[in-house]
């Protein structure tokens, strides 16, 4: 989805401002409900998400987006997209039912919170590659996210990228770490996709077997 915009006018976003300090509490081991991949645009989050879901469909899933565009030939509602009217989508946005939404080619696209809940009900872990501001909604006991920052790879590992794009990638990655680093559960440098997937899988397994520090708001 291009031209992605967060639901900036949601009352939820006004109520849950990101802060640099929060009280935490230690809980016994438990399984996180969602995997949130953060990172600069172009760092490879979508590829990581798709590879992870394809390799382990019984453990991970991606929330199917909603769109106002018309179905293409042979497209099934609920397979790659949920097709809704513009009026339906605007109503649901006004009711704070979308995590993110945006426009592309005069059509709207968005991720509904209920699609994430449906994944959790199936005992699967939802995988989200979202903008960092989405943490304002996701960092709750309901979604219990494991937040992974995909850092820009080493300069020697980047091929076929011009200097301007590389500079933007590295700068955006640095700014994201400065602004949101205190929310990261794990930082992975995406030098090799297979290694990245292994590291992610091991980290998720390990965290479910250890006691964890989480925001007090997840408990009280």
Helical residues, percent: 25-40%
Kindly report the average pLDDT value: 88
CATH topology (level 3) name of the largest domain: Rossmann fold
How many separate helices? 7
What is the H level of CATH, i.e. the homologous superfamily of the largest domain?
A: P-loop containing nucleotide triphosphate hydrolases
Sketch the major β-sheet.
5 strands, mixed
Element-by-element helix/strand order:
EHEEHEEEHEEHEHEHEHE
pLDDT under 50 segments (min length 5)?
1-16
Could you explain the architecture of this structure?
The termini are far apart. This protein is globular. Helix content is about 30%, strand content about 25%. The strands form three sheets. It has a five-stranded mixed β-sheet. It has a five-stranded parallel β-sheet with strand order 4-9-3-10-11. The protein has two domains: about 140 residues, P-loop containing nucleotide triphosphate hydrolases (Rossmann fold, 3-Layer(aba) Sandwich); about 60 residues, Guanylate Kinase phosphate binding domain. By secondary structure, it is α/β, with parallel strands linked by helices. Strand 10, helix 6 and strand 11 form a beta-alpha-beta unit.
């Amino acid at each position: 989805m291009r031209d992605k915009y967060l639901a900036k006018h949601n009352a939820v976003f006004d109520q849950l401002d990101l802060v640099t300090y929060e009280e935490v509490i230690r809980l016994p081991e438990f399984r996180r409900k969602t995997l949130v991949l953060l990172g600069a645009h172009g760092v490879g989050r979508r590829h990581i998400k798709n590879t992870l879901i394809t390799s382990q469909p019984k453990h991970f899933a991606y929330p199917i987006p909603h769109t106002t565009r018309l179905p293409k030939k042979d497209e099934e509602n609920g397979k790659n997209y949920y097709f809704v009217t513009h009026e339906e989508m605007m109503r649901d946005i006004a009711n704070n039912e979308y995590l993110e939404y945006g426009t592309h080619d005069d059509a709207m696209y968005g991720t509904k919170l209920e699609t994430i809940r449906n994944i959790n009900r199936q005992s699967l872990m939802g995988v989200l590659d979202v903008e960092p501001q989405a943490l304002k909604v996701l960092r709750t006991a309901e979604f219990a996210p494991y937040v992974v920052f995909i850092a820009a790879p080493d300069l020697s590992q980047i091929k076929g990228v011009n200097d301007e794009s590389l500079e933007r990638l590295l700068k955006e990655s640095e700014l994201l770490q400065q602004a949101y680093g205190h929310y990261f559960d794990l930082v992975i440098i995406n030098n090799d996709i297979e290694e990245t997937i292994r590291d992610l899988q091991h980290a998720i397994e390990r965290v479910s077997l250890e006691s964890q520090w989480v925001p007090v708001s997840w408990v009280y």
